Amino acid sequence: MRAVPLVLVAVATVHAQPAQSDRQRVSEALQKIAQLEQQLEYEQALVLADRTIAEGIATRDQLADLHLIAGRLAAGLDHPDIAQQHFAKLLALRPETTLVAGTSPKLLAPFDAAKAAPHELVIVVTGGQLAVTRDDLHLVQGTRLRGNTLEAFDEHGNQLASAAAPATAMQGTPEEHRSHAWIPFAAASGATLIAGGLAAWRYGVAQDEWNRENDGVHDYTRLQALEDRGQRWAIAADVGFGLAAATAVTAVVLFATRGSEAPSIAFTGNGAAYTTRF
Questions:
Q1: Is 269 in contact with 120 (CB distance < 8 Å)?
Q2: Which of these, 7, 6, 20, 268, lies nearest to 147 by C-alpha position?
Q3: Residue 237's domain spans which residues?
Q4: 43/114 same-domain check
Q5: Are 192 and 133 within one domain?
Q6: CA atoms lying within 13 Å on the CB side of residue 90
Q7: Average pLDDT in the 5-28 region?
Q8: Average pLDDT of the residues in 177-185
Q9: What are phi and psi for residue 244, nearest 5 degrees?
Q10: 86 located within any domain
Q11: 108 and 3 in one domain?
Q12: 3: pLDDT confidence band, cut at 50, 70 and 90?
């Protein structure tokens, strides 16, 4: 039986790297499963394969290997339906997988059935948000940021696809950064509005004082000083209200368009490997 791996066509694309200990555990499990298969302990080997898949620590390639051997074992145990399910998931991850000539009809029948049925997997992630454009087997259950890599994962947590994340995603997803960009402007708008209101209040105080002292008795110099002070506060109020309006508009625009220009990552299991766009 021969499995043809997908070829990476985007230089920026990388496989995610789960913890070394996790990868090692899956590798050791695959070796043990293969050993049990050679010893014709198919039932025990299938149980171990299913248990390893359920752990949710496999990389995309390891997951494909597990489904490949699990499909083989299930077919050998006369469970063609289970074998077909494993083979279908294998083909979603490695669509160019083929069986060698002379493969037993016991394996060939469920494999061909899986190949004939819909099994394509095409995933698009935009700004940290998952969009599945095609997932015939309903494999994708969510996305996560691990290190500097964005991943799509299955129901157990196994990796289905991965791509290098933008630098901003190191401390949060691109969508998180964009969705919060309006907050500083909203805060600035509130602060300048308060400052403008304070200046307007001070202008009103100066105006009231000028009105009280403009009785023809008080010194003109005193009135002029009050007038100058009032004008300064009026200018400060105008500037404060103007800045408040400008930052408020900016906050509204950013809030309304948050995530609309987020980077996107495309994962596809249809033979075109992965592509990325930032």
A1: yes
A2: 20
A3: 181-257
A4: yes
A5: no
A6: 28
A7: 56
A8: 61
A9: -60, -45
A10: yes
A11: yes
A12: very low
